[in-house]
Structures are given as C-alpha cells and as structure tokens.
Amino acid sequence: MRKLEVEGGDLDFTIYTQFYHCLCEYYIAVGELAQARQQAERLYNYTVSAPDRNHLALAHGLFARIAMAKGDFAEADLQLQRSIATLGNDDFPLAAWRVYLSAAEFYRSVGDASRAGEYRTRYETVIQTLAANFDHGDALRVSLLAGLAGNAAVVEWMAMFDQAASSRLNAIAVRREMSRPVTYPVADLAGRLIH
Predict the structure, then answer these.
(1) How far apart are CA 41 and CA 30, in angstroms?
(2) pLDDT value at position 57?
(3) 179 and 103, same structural domain?
(4) Statement to judge: residues 27 and 102 lie in one domain
(5) Segment 116-170, tens digit of pLDDT
(6) Residue 60: how many CA atoms within 13 Å on its side-chain side?
C-alpha cells in the first residue's frame, strides 16, 4: 500500500476499484473507521470521473456503513439514498446486493420494518438471480445460496432478539409503574433468548 501511495502505480481501473473497496471493508471490519472513510473516499474519487455507477453505488454504500458504525443515522440514510439512486433501475447486481443488504440492516436498526423488509426482498432477489446463472452444483451458486440462507438466519435471530428485548423492556416498564423493582441482568436476558 505504501508503495502505491509513494510511487503510484499502473494498476488497472478494475483492480484499483476492488482494492479500495476491499481495503475499506477490512477497515470497517476491524473498527478503524477513519481508515475506512479514507479508502471509501479514494474509491469515490477514483470512480466519480469515469463515471462508474457500479462502484459509485458501492462507495456511497460504504459511506453509509461507516456512518452506521459511528451512530450517525442521518448521514447513513443520506448515503444509502445516494447509493440506491445511483443504482437506479439498471442492472448492477454486484453492487446492488451489497447496497440492498446494507439498507435492510439500516432500516431494521432504526425500527422501520416495512422498508427493511422491502430491501431484504430486493437483496434476496438479486442473490437468487446471480445464483441462477450457475449450474446447480457449481460451488459459487452453492456459496451464494448458502450465504443467503445464513443471512436469513442472522436476520431472523436479530428480529427475534429485537422483539424479545422490546417485550422485556415493556414488561419492565409496566412493572416499574406498579412500583415493583425488577432487574434483568444482560447475561440472564441472553440466556433466556438462547433457550
């Protein structure tokens, strides 16, 4: 990376876009949000002049994920809207599935179940369309569909957790109004959800 920054390089456009995208994903995963933002900006600046709408949508999606990680939901919503508008009605499946999954996660996290469901459906449709391009036993097809099933399980668990936590909080509020002190340690709540 340092060599690219100092000496420059003659990497192909596609390689640069993938490099910046993957590096940003890495920094998001390890929680280095300033570094992630820098790579998202590089991706954006590199693709905006092309214009490469596929990677522009990804850049806005990355900006949204960084904002979500920082708790800046207004910025996350703005960047998601830019990302979705960049996709338009055109066929950019490699960007679309990531954008739609991020949108589903965002809207779920802010309590908008309707929009979360809409983008979850869009995400699933894109993944199923991509998988349909491969033979039934092809490893990439199997991987796409397994990822879809895995994400469905995670989303289902998160929804179940949100519902259980909400029910617990409502029960606590009612009990407090009745002047009975009630405490639920986090470990106890997690144990009850698992069983």
Answers:
(1) 18
(2) 94
(3) no
(4) yes
(5) 999 999 999 999 999 898 898 888 888 888 877 766 554 454 455 455 555 554 5
(6) 22
Distance CA 60, CA 124 (A): 20
* DSSP H helical ranges for 71-195: 73-87, 93-109, 113-131, 139-177, 186-194
Whole-number mean pLDDT of the chain? 79
pLDDT of residue 77: 96
pLDDT value of position 149: 75
What is the amino acid identity at position 41? Answer: E
Q: Does 144 fall in a domain?
A: no
> Which residue from 109, 129, 30, 19 is spatially nearest to 64, judged by alpha carbons?
109
Note down the domain range covering 78. 2-133
CATH code for the domain of 47? 1.25.40.10
Question: Side-chain half-sphere of 82: how many Cα atoms within 13 Å?
Answer: 19
> Domain check: are 190 and 156 in the same one?
yes
Structure-block tokens of residue 116? 């979360």
Number of other CB atoms surrounding residue 52 within 10 Å: 20
